[in-house]
Design brief:
Low-confidence stretches: none
Helix content: over 70%
Strand content: 5-15%
Number of domains: 2
Number of strands: 2
Mean pLDDT: 75
Strand order of the largest sheet: 1-2
Shape: elongated
Structural class: mainly alpha
Oligomer: single chain
Number of helices: 11
Length: 437
């Protein structure tokens, strides 16, 4: 492995054997990265398979030529891997989480909301039909009551009503209401479909833009690090490297690397400086906001499913509401009080007609004819994948410092002469500071 890395990091291969080994390494890297690139385009960004294949093959060939012919490009490509553990890698993982939520959670929420609306539509339709049918009860009661009034009037010769019946204009055809309910339901369904498609398309396009920008910026950040490493001796130069230790031993000044210089750390050590710890905490707080928003969306999925499931189960067991119409009627005749008092007759009244009857009807709110789609339960694998991705994201927060140290190690292995110059610069700086103190 050490020999292969030495061949890979050399500016120019020493012979035919090293040239063939370098080409084989570059070919393997291009094939693996091309396969991952195709899977990312097709599975995550949802490109068509033929477009994903064409882009992956073109990218692999271009990457092969670039790695094989350009030495700094190999260094930048090697630094991209540890750079995935920095904020750019976190952006890619966040975009993946957003895409998972948009594709798997949002349709569930919209489907369960549509199920709730179907339940409401079913209740409204059946209750309106049952209420319309109750008008027939009023018509029957009024007609029988009118018959009693007519019979009571016929028994009196002084006054007779022309017709004692009540007239109701009843709506026996409920097709108009059913049509209006159907139109309203179709309008709501179309609106929800439009909103769902708009959200999915917006998230899909936004995720593609964010992912493309993140990959480009990932390459740019690696190139920017290499440029600063080669041009600025002070950039990221506070490590106790082997070259610096060898330089201090050769010049018999090992005390320069003693405990008095607290800002120096070992590149392969686990120690974090105070600034690095503070930056990790700030990044963790920022990620907590994004995690909270995604968890709110996942919680909405569970809440809408619970409401839809409860509504579907309860609507099948809605009890009917009994309606009772009671009519009590009594018709009596009594002489005028003036004549009774004039002739001193007893107060006497006679009953002509008594009527007492109850009419029963039942209001129903559900029916087996209602077409209600079953609610969709949340996918537990989505929550598992999100938790796993966020664990990786939070791990990269604390591994970012070590990823940058690995980037410095890679750059040092590709440009050994520059690493010696940086070690000499740091040694001179430490010597001047020691003399001043």
């Amino acid at each position: 492995v050490a020999d292969l890395w030495c061949i890979y990091s050399k500016p120019v291969p020493a012979g035919g054997r090293e040239l063939r080994a370098l080409f084989l390494q570059c070919s393997c890297l291009a094939a693996v990265v091309g396969g991952l690139f195709y899977n990312w385009l097709f599975a995550s960004l949802e490109y068509s398979w033929h477009l994903a294949v064409a882009m992956a093959v073109s990218f692999s060939l271009l990457l092969l030529l670039t790695l094989f012919l350009v030495h700094p490009a190999r260094c930048v490509f090697s630094m991209i891997m540890p750079t995935l553990g920095t904020k750019q890698g976190r952006k890619l993982l966040l975009s993946t989480c957003i895409m998972i939520v948009a594709v798997n959670v949002t349709p569930n929420i919209v489907s369960n909301i549509k199920t709730i609306l179907q339940v409401i539509k079913c209740i409204c339709k059946n209750s309106s039909e049952s209420l319309l049918n109750s008008t027939a009860l009023l018509g029957t009661a009024s007609w029988e009551f009118g018959e009693e009034i007519q019979a009571a009037g016929n028994s009196i010769n002084i006054w007779r009503p022309m017709n004692g019946h009540f007239r109701f204009s009843l709506l026996h055809n409920s097709s108009l209401i059913n049509q209006q309910m159907h139109l309203a339901g179709e309008k709501v369904r179309r609106d929800f479909l439009a909103v769902e498609e708009l959200v999915k398309d917006s998230v899909r396009v936004g995720n593609k833009l964010v992912a493309g920008f993140s990959v480009l910026y990932l390459c740019f950040e690696s190139a920017w690090y290499l440029k600063n490493y080669l041009t600025n001796l002070r950039f990221d130069n506070f490590y106790i490297t082997k070259k610096l230790e060898r330089l201090a031993v050769d010049r018999k000044t090992p005390h320069l690397l003693g405990g008095w210089s607290k800002n120096l750390i070992r590149p392969m050590g686990l120690k974090l400086s105070r600034v690095e710890v503070l930056l990790c905490l700030v990044q963790a707080l920022r990620l907590a906001v994004a995690l909270t928003l995604m968890l709110v969306v996942v919680a909405m999925d569970h809440v809408t499913f619970s409401v839809a499931d409860t509504a579907v189960r309860k609507v099948a067991h809605l009890s009917v509401v009994p309606i009772t119409l009671s009519i009590k009627y009594s018709a009596k005749i009594q002489p005028l009080p003036f004549f009774l008092s004039l002739f001193q007759l007893p107060d006497k009244e006679s009953t002509l007609r008594d009527f007492e009857k109850s009419y029963h009807h039942y209001l129903t709110f559900s029916s087996a004819r209602c077409s209600i789609s079953p609610p969709l339960p949340p996918n537990p694998s989505v929550l598992f994948v999100m938790v796993l991705l966020f664990c990786i994201i939070y791990a990269t927060v604390f591994l970012e410092t070590y990823a940058r140290r690995l980037c410095r190690k890679i750059a040092a292995s590709f440009f050994e002469s520059r690493e010696e110059e940086r070690a000499l610069y740091l040694y001179s700086k430490l010597s001047r500071k020691y003399v001043e103190e």
